[in-house]
Design goal:
Structural class: alpha+beta
Strand content: 15-25%
Radius of gyration: 14 Å
Shape: globular
Number of helices: 2
Strand order of the largest sheet: 1-2
Helix content: 40-55%
Oligomer: single chain
Number of strands: 2
Length: about 60
C-alpha cells in the first residue's frame, strides 16, 4: 500500500495532517517533521490502523 501524508488547509487557515497507509506509530514518526513545522498541536485523532497494529503486536508478543 502507498504511504501518503496529506496537509489540509481550510479557508480559515486551520491546518490538518492526515496519514494514510501507515501502521501503528509509524504514522507519527512519518509526520513528525510536518507537525513540528506547523507549531503547537491542537488535538490528535488516531485512526483504526494505528490501534489495529498495536493489537496485532500485542497478540504476537503473548504467543
Amino acid at each position: 500500500m502507498t504511504k501518503i501524508i496529506e496537509v489540509i488547509v481550510s479557508p480559515t487557515g486551520d491546518a490538518k495532517v492526515e496519514t494514510k497507509g501507515f501502521a501503528g506509530a509509524e504514522c507519527r514518526d512519518a509526520s513528525a517533521f510536518i507537525e513540528k513545522a506547523m507549531g503547537k498541536q491542537q488535538r490528535e485523532t488516531l485512526k483504526a490502523e494505528y490501534h489495529r497494529q498495536r493489537i496485532q503486536q500485542t497478540n504476537r508478543e503473548q504467543a
